[in-house]
Amino acid sequence: MPNKNDFKDYRDPQINEMETKTNRRPRKRHDYETAIFGMEKSFFNSEVAFVN
Fold first, then answer.
1. Are the C-beta atoms of 37 and 20 separated by less than 8 Å?
2. Is the CB of residue 35 less than 8 Å from the CB of residue 23?
3. pLDDT per position in the chain (52 positions), as tens?
């Protein structure tokens, strides 16, 4: 998808597909892991305590 693209030309399923492809792309800033993997790793980390 080119930069500065108008999303009104796309339907929701197409946008969801682009979003999924973007989130599954490995990132250098995450040591070449995907954004989804990094999020899962932080959410399901047993060393992190959540406080209410």
1. no
2. yes
3. 667 778 888 899 998 998 888 878 888 877 788 877 777 777 776 666 666 5
- Its pTM stands at 0.52
Residue 34 CB coordination number (10 Å):
15
Which residue range forms the structural domain that includes residue 22?
12-37
CA distance 52 to 50: 7
CA distance 34 to 15: 19
In a domain, 44, yes or no: no
Q: Give how many domains the chain has, as a whole number.
A: 1
Q: In angstroms, rounded to a whole number, what is the distance separating the alpha carbons of residues 14 and 21?
A: 11
CA atoms within 13 A on the CB side of 9: 5
